[in-house]
Automatic annotation (TrEMBL):
UniProt-listed Gene3D superfamilies: P-loop containing nucleotide triphosphate hydrolases (3.40.50.300)
Natural source organism: Collimonas arenae
Cellular component, GO annotation: cytosol
UniProt keyword Nucleotide-binding, yes or no: yes
Alphabetical UniProt keywords: ATP-binding, Cytoplasm, Nucleotide-binding
Coiled-coil region: none
Region entry Disordered, spans: 102-146, 369-389
Higher taxonomy: Bacteria, Pseudomonadati, Pseudomonadota, Betaproteobacteria, Burkholderiales
Record field: compositional bias (Acidic residues): 110-129
InterPro entries: P-loop_NTPase, PhoH, PhoH2-like
Name the record gives this protein: PhoH-like protein
UniProt record similarity statement: Belongs to the PhoH family.
Presence of keyword Acetylation: no
């Protein structure tokens, strides 16, 4: 393996020289250059028509500059730069490490983090970078990182898939893209979107408007993904034909959903009872995708999260796949990935027992003696009972 001097500068000289393409490449006030510099931790200097990149990832930065200069006859958006940077960060292993070989259970883990890693992470190989292609009306999509590629493959190959990870990793967007792809291929007859409305609890009936208007604020991220993939007009037509349905989680009890693609978003805010109810709605020819972030639970203190409960109970159930995302999968502003890392580091430095449940490790923790079970009689009822005596 060749070694490179971290401080060795790399040069990029645009050919052929075109001032319009240079302006598109650099972006307004050199915003694109700043994004590349911040994401890859390099310094980029411009001297006339020459670009100089210095740092350990300078060669990668030059590759991105060359890649976008070739297509800079049009404006290069920040979003395009961000997606390219996500791919480069994944290749460089910036953020969490991803194992590149299957674990056989014989070799010891190098670190505590690897010892406690999710089994799905241990099975990632280099071939997982090649993602299945999702065909939608507007564009073809594929995973940008190994975890995203594994996530798409898991959805295509399993009836139930759980995607767990921080914000901005594409959990919801890719789930909706898979649903649209399945609907376009006639693999399913409808898409069902659901999400717990924690702020309103189960009292949606007290909110103004019809059913769609009551839950619309909670399903807005799913709507945004549909509009992006299908367009506004086509999405509205599919709602009218009931090919796409919104179903508040509280109203799904008793239903059996056949030939449907069901997405439960923000699942960390479900209770164990709600999660069980949702997973048992699946009928013949249906797929279910559950997404959530166990670090952003909005349940009342002491209420166990249904997502954490499902992760512990279903981890060995055949036919259910798990994908864990981390900061290296974030496809938003590079600062978001660093924010996620900072919060995770702080949580590890000062661990606090969660009141919403604990994700079980490979080795079971010792069982503590159970507290005495309280009777169903409340304190008020008990006092009345004593008065009657």
């Amino acid at each position: 393996m060749k070694t490179k001097t971290p401080t060795q500068p790399h040069y990029f000289i645009p050919q052929p020289l075109d001032n319009t393409r240079l302006a598109h490449l650099c972006g307004p006030l050199d915003e694109n250059l700043r994004q590349i510099s911040a994401a890859l931790d390099v310094s980029i200097f411009r001297r006339g028509d020459k670009f100089i990149a210095a740092g350990s990832n300078a060669e990668r930065a030059v590759e991105i500059l060359d890649q976008f200069y070739a297509v800079a006859n049009k404006v290069v958006s920040v979003d395009e730069i961000q997606l390219a940077l996500v791919e480069q960060r994944a290749k460089l292993g910036i953020g969490k490490k991803i194992k590149s070989a299957k674990s056989n259970g014989k070799a010891g883990a190098d670190t505590d983090e690897e010892a406690n890693a999710d089994p799905a992470d241990a099975e990632l190989t280099e071939t997982d970078i090649e993602s299945p292609v999702l065909k939608t009306r507007r564009s073809d999509l594929r995973g940008r990182t190994p975890h995203q590629s594994q996530y798409i493959r898991s959805i295509l190959e399993h009836d139930v898939t759980l995607g767990i990870g921080p914000a901005g990793t594409g959990k919801t967007y890719l789930a909706v893209a898979c649903a649209v792809d399945a609907l376009e291929r006639d693999a399913v007859k409808r898409i069902v979107l659901t999400r717990p409305a924690v702020e309103a609890g189960e009292r949606l009936g007290f909110l103004p408007g019809d059913l769609a208007q009551k839950v619309d604020p909670y399903l807005r991220p799913l709507y945004d993904a549909l509009y992006d993939l299908l367009g506004f007009d086509r999405t509205q037509k599919m709602f009218e034909k009931q090919a796409i349905e919104i179903a508040p989680l509280a109203y799904m009890r008793g239903r059996t959903l056949n030939h449907a693609f069901i997405i439960l978003d923000e699942a960390q805010n479900t209770t164990p009872e709600q999660m069980k109810m949702f997973l048992t709605r699946i009928g013949f020819g249906s797929k279910a995708v559950v997404t959530g972030d166990v670090t952003q639970i909005d349940l009342q203190r002491g209420q166990k999260s249904g997502l954490i409960d499902a992760m512990n109970i279903l981890k060995d159930v055949r036919g259910i796949a798990f994908t864990r995302f981390n900061s290296s999968d974030v496809v938003r502003h590079p600062l978001v990935a660093r924010i996620v890392d900072a919060y995770e580091s702080a949580a590890q430095a000062t661990p606090v027992a969660s009141t919403h449940g604990v994700i079980e490790a490979a080795a079971p923790a010792p069982v503590k003696p159970a507290k005495p079970v309280q009777t169903g009689i409340t304190k008020t009822a008990r006092s009345r009972h004593a008065v009657k005596k």
